[in-house]
Amino acid sequence: MNNIFRPALVLFLALTLLTGVAYPLAVTGAAQLLFPDQAAGSLILRGGKPVGSSLIGQNFTDPGHFWGRPSATGPMPYNASASGGSNLGPLNPALVDAVKGRIDALRAADPGNAAAVPVDLVTASASGLDPHISPAAASYQAARVARVRGLPLEKVQQLLAQETETPWLGLLGEARVHVLRLNLALDALRPVHAPG
Fold first, then answer.
1. Is residue 194 part of a domain?
2. Is residue 143 part of a domain?
3. Residues 110 and 145 grouped into a single domain
4. What is the distance between the alpha carbons of residues 46 and 33, in angstroms, rounded to a whole number?
5. Neighbour-count burial for 143-160, b at 16+ CB within 10 Å, e otherwise
6. Which residue range(s) make up the domain with 4?
7. Whether the model pTM is above 0.85
8. pLDDT by residue (tens digit) across 25-71?
9. Of residues 194, 175, 184, 189, the one with CA closest to residue 136
């Protein structure tokens, strides 16, 4: 019995040390050495303090900021622990009502804007965490943001062009705007003042 139990125990302990200690330490060390930004959470820092991640969107609702894609996560928007879409089909009345409500909110925030609302401002991404919007979605909001902040529209459009990320190697992906980075750049120009 001892000659069966002892080798099993030794093998169990050896594999535990190898796969439970040595391998995770080696992978973590390699990640921190080769990809330090990603290994640290892809954090965006402002004044040396983290203000967000480049991988997860944030819920901006103030009219002086650009708004990102809606998030279907619960119980709060952009909840990384509940990543996932709403799973509502295009004919589902709940999705139709949600899109109408989002369009109404965008129209109420900028009543003079008669342009078509870009689809990514009213529909959530599959993960519910998308930090980017299309350049069209950002352009749709530029006049509202400029008016609320008291900035010339040309200045906001110039900043928007600077913050637009192009496809990788000019081929892969689509042009996109990182909402948090754009809003931080705007705040560096002129912070939004609290009402009153």
1. no
2. yes
3. yes
4. 23
5. bbbbebbebeeeebeebb
6. 1-40
7. no
8. 999 999 889 988 888 888 888 888 988 888 898 999 899 999 999 98
9. 175
